[in-house]
Structure formats: C-alpha cells, structure tokens
Amino acid sequence: MSDNAKKLVVLITKGIDSELSSVAFTIANGGLTAGLKVFVFLTSSAIDVVRKNGQTLTHVPPLDSLAALIGDFQNRGGVIWACPPCVRSRGYEQADLLDGVVIAGAGVMHAEIKDGAATLSF
C-alpha cells in the first residue's frame, strides 16, 4: 500500500446536537488504530464540537464521550481543520477553539484527496 493510500479525510458537518459527530470521531480514531494518517475537516455546525467546552455537551452511549474521542484523536496525531467562514460566522476566533485545531480552508482537504486520501463524510 502506498503512503498516499494510508490517508483518510473525514468531513464532518454535524455538531453537538447530532450523534453523527461522535460516530465520525469514533471512526476517525479507528482509522488511526488501523495505521492511517487521519485528517478531520469540520464545517457548518461541526465547528461547535471544537469550541472550548462545546464537546463536553454531548455523549452518545455506548460510545466514549465526544470530549474523550476528540482528545484521543488529537493525542494520537490526528489533525483537525476548521472551516474559516464557518468559524467566523459563529463569531469564534482561534482562541475559542481547542488547542491544536487549525483554521484552514478546504484547500488543505482537497490537497490530501488529490494526493490519494480516502474520504468519509458525516
């Protein structure tokens, strides 16, 4: 398997009000466990899952809490990108987001896809 085939981009559009944000981070963590380099691109209401303390507002048993899932993802080398217009439209700035979250446009995601990354969308 080429290095490019060992990448996964997970696009998440669902926020703290949807179990899909927890499912997406569970699957993203599974990608890390499988040896993939995993990138998460957050857009729309998904931005709220990386707003400081936002991820503490949801837990979908039997999954781990969203806060634990995101923490595990970041601690294991997962990359989280946040859509700039989506961040700004909510009145957030970098300081409002979890440490390590990168505000970056869709071009970073597209570059990984062009380089051969698999994709999932939630």
Structural account:
The protein starts with 6 loop residues before the first strand and ends with a strand. A five-stranded parallel β-sheet has the order 4-3-2-1-5, with helices on both faces. The chain has one domain: DsrEFH-like (Hypothetical Protein Ychn, Chain: A, 3-Layer(aba) Sandwich), CATH 3.40.1260. With 122 residues, the chain is an alpha/beta fold. The radius of gyration is 13 Å and the shape is globular. The protein has four helices and five strands; from the N terminus they run E-H-E-H-E-H-E-H-E. The mean pLDDT is 95. Strand 1, helix 1 and strand 2 form a beta-alpha-beta unit. InterPro entries: DsrEFH-like (IPR027396), Sulphur_relay_DsrE/F-like (IPR003787).
